[in-house]
Amino acid sequence: MRVATWNVNSVTARLPRLHEWLDLVAPDVLCLQETKCAAEAFPSDGLTERGYQVAAVGDGRWNGVAILSRVGLTEVAHGFAGQPGYAAQPDGDDPALLSAPPVVEARAVGADCGQLRVWSVYVPNGRTPESPHYAYKLDWLAALRAALTPELTGDRPFAVMGDFNVAPGDEDVWDPDAFVGATHVTPAEREELARLRAAGLTDVRPRAMKHDTPFTYWDYRAGMFPKNMGMRIDLVYANAAAAAAVRDAYVDRDARKGKGPSDHAPIVVDLDI
After folding, report:
1. Among the four 51, 163, 190, 264, which has the fewest Cβ within 10 Å?
2. What positions does the domain Endonuclease/exonuclease/phosphatase occupy (predicted)?
3. Cβ count near 169 (within 10 Å)
4. Average of per-residue pLDDT values in the chain
5. Ordered structural domains, the chain, with CATH
6. What element of type H or E holds 213?
């Protein structure tokens, strides 16, 4: 079984590239993040023709996640139990808006795909350590761990993958000094990620290909991609059954090249399932 995860940064903007990539790489299961598409408007044409069923969660704003599967799609979960919402409105952190009811954003979808249980997640960015969005990010990661822990045990292969917006270690950013005081690398974020792994998950680290460090995200600005000034924030976490089945894992840098790419590259994992 071939599984993959990709923050496409708008599925509609990336649709021709997505179709081309599916034909080339042929994953059995693909998790998407930042689809920026309402669930009812998800562009399934071209996907169903390629044999994929689609489970999508989205409200048409900057979030949105989906699972594409050609090996079955059952037991779909739109979000997870206890998933926290964000109290401020999408316009920003105006104090006058913080008393509004929390909005549960479109950031998680789970499904059984053949023998594999998979979750596609788009962890909140956090913005800055001083922002209410940062506390929301930590709460979200803790709630994810609590919700998924019961699914990790047993012989059924399980994987949670997506854009975690956290670099697990200093080796996962191009220059640790460049991120001092910023999100994605703070001790609190990394500790929450470590707690998730400690619940029974293995970090399926992609093998290095062109570069020593398999980054997955490069900002559009200042030629950061050709300079390999990136981060590894897209992750595949697998339980013992899935981790034991991993044959290969790599970052498809070619998908980050060319005209109109996402700022993320896909991770592809081959499993003996």
Report:
1. 51
2. 4-264
3. 13
4. 94
5. 2-271 (3.60.10.10)
6. none
